[in-house]
Structure formats: C-alpha cells, structure tokens
Amino acid sequence: xxxxxxxxxxxxxxxxxxxxxxxxxxxxxxxxxxxxxxxxxxxxxxxxxxxxxxxxxxxxxxxxxxxxxxxxxxxxxxxxxxxxxxxxxxxxxxxxxxxxxxxxxxxxxxxxxxxxxxxxxxxxxx
Length: 126
Prior knowledge:
The protein is built from no helices and 11 strands. The strands form 2 sheets. Strands 2, 4, 5, 6, 9, 10 and 11 form a 7-stranded mixed β-sheet that branches. The protein has a 4-stranded antiparallel β-sheet with strand order 1-3-8-7, with no helix packed on it. By secondary structure, it is mainly β.
C-alpha cells in the first residue's frame, strides 16, 4: 500500500478557491491512479474525481465538474485538487485515495481504492 497525507484544507468564502495536496510515500506513486472523495457531516462519503496513474485521464462527479480540477506530479509524488467557485455545499472532509487499475472496476466507488489518507477539512462560508 501507499501512504497518503492530505494538506491544504481550511476556511474559504463562497466563490473562493482552494488547492488541496496529497503526498504519497511507500510505493511507486506512478503505478497508482488517485481519487478524491469527500464526506459532509451526516452524509455518506462521495466521489469527487479521479486521475489515472499517468495523468492522462480524469473523471469528475457532476456536482464539481467545471469547478474542480485534479492533477498530479509523479516526480513530487503528489496529487492535487484545485477547487474554484466554491459553494457552502462543498463543505466536507476531503480524502485522497489510491487505486491499482482493474478492468471493469467502478472508480467512483470507495471499494475500488486500496489506500486512504486521513482527510483534510474544507469549510466554505456563505
């Protein structure tokens, strides 16, 4: 497994931007696709988006499409979540997670991911 540590969370006003980082260690980072999930109080963890191991493919939840961008730097062993036009409903704990590609797996589901970070809180004030 790969060890993951998120950072960059905080308090931001609605309409603002924030960039989360997720630093990986322990395994060859470039062998893993990476995903971002979030969990708001009283709600289930939900898929935000993912990026393939080489960075050439991304997918996003409809709720964040056009506002959030995932990127990665395989030299720095880091994946990023750039969030713009933030809304109060984006308030949640954000988690990064790593997956090894398996044909047919649903990458919007938590079960597809092997390793998880501890999460970072994002709060969007109205």
